[in-house]
Design brief:
Layout lengths: L8 E3 L6 H14 L10 E8 L4 E5 L12 H12 L4 E9 L5 E2 L5 H11 L9 E5 L5 E4 L12 H5 L1
Parallel strand pairs: 4-6
Antiparallel strand pairs: 1-7, 2-3, 2-4, 4-5, 6-7
Bound molecules: tetrahydrodeoxyuridine.
The site of tetrahydrodeoxyuridine has 13 residues, from helix 2.
Length: about 160
Amino acid sequence: MKIIAIDYQVLTKSELEEEDALLVEAAIEAMSKAYAPYSNFTVGSAVLLANGEVVIGNNQENAAYPSGLCAERVALFSAKSKSPEPIKAIAIVANNAKGESADAFACGNCRQVMLEYASQDVQNTLIKVIMRNHQGQFYVLDDVKSLMPFNFNSTTLGS
Ligand code: THU
């Protein structure tokens, strides 16, 4: 039997590194502008680029449900469409329909997109992931790769 362990910290907001706390603030601000009239589940995301720039995103829903997009991918695609800068970190927060903090655990599609940008051929820095949980604590992972073992990536394509 083989076991895969995930390294992560659980921190309060005041325990976050300053850079991470600022990124979380940007994600909270982005969440307030989410377009989520169908689920009323609002998500905000903020991406930190290696040059210090922060790019935000929020969930964008649609009457044709699958046409909508998660906050993380709105932020990641926006960041990468603006600049080839490596992505250093992504913060994600979510509120449920009652406006309470909910687990902002990135969905599988968003994890896949994060992994794409974390791959060695795209950038050489690790992507840190900061996700707020329903208790308002922050799960901090230094390497997005630990979120998705056995992933499909460009190396898989060539193998
Ligand atoms: N959502 C995100 O924005 N990010 C995720 O990682 C999971 C879900 C959005 C999609 C939809 O607008 C709402 O949350 C409910 O699924």
